[in-house]
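Lab channel / #folding
Pinned by the channel admin:
"Please post every new chain as: sequence first, then the structure tokens as a reply. Keep commentary short and put observations after the output so the thread stays searchable."

First post following the new format, from NK:
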Amino acid sequence: MKLNELSDNPGARKARMRVGRGIGSGKGKTSARGQKGQKARNTVAVGFEGGQMPIYRRLPKRGFNNISRKEFAVLNLGRLQKAIDAKKVDSSQAITIDILVKAGVVDRHFHDGVRLLGNGELTTKVNIEVTGATKSAISAVEKTGGSVKIA
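Reply from TO:
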């Protein structure tokens, strides 16, 4: 037996039916869709569930979605300390958002900026520039002798 002699078992691969290729093909004219009606057409309306109440109308709508809200990338103090320990971030110079993105500490799609949160422990003195910070994060950074600049 040779590689060029290998083949599938007969009937293992069935060619798809090509519809709308003339009456002689057996699936011409209406392409087995019958006569007229919504299902004979190419498309059905998005969200249409056959006359049943669609799911987007069945489910309750609650609350208020503020379309102009700001979404921040989150940076916890513990994550920052881990990056400093791994020498991804140099704590001797000011840490900016660009430095955090290059180091891979913050996702490069940081939306409206980076917000510093107080989760975790910071043991290194850092000077950091972020878009926002919580009171606990600011006090933790200042406790180590560093500073937080909110830009």
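NK: The CA atoms of residues 67 and 112 lie 13 Å apart.
TO: also worth noting, The chain has a mean pLDDT of 93.
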